[in-house]
Write a structure and sequence with these properties.
Blueprint: E1 23-28, E2 33-37, E3 43-45, H1 46-62
Length: 63
């Protein structure tokens, strides 16, 4: 039986999470719309994107 080596510790130079500055609509449904980030390729529902922006603005104003 072989074991996996432990995962390396997180690096201090890790990239910041993508803030999805450029998105493109990839699919529409009756109730939802999906967008793809042109920077990182992540696909998510557009309502989630709006929620991310609201949360980010709220966090910045608290600082």
């Amino acid at each position: 039986m072989t074991s996996k080596p432990p995962a390396p510790p997180p690096s201090r130079d890790m990239k910041q999470p993508c803030k999805h500055p450029r998105v493109q609509i990839v699919s529409r449904d009756e109730d939802s719309e999906f967008v793809e980030c042109k920077e990182c390729g992540e696909i998510f529902e557009s309502s989630e994107f709006k929620d991310m922006n609201i949360e980010e603005r709220t966090q910045e104003s608290e600082i």
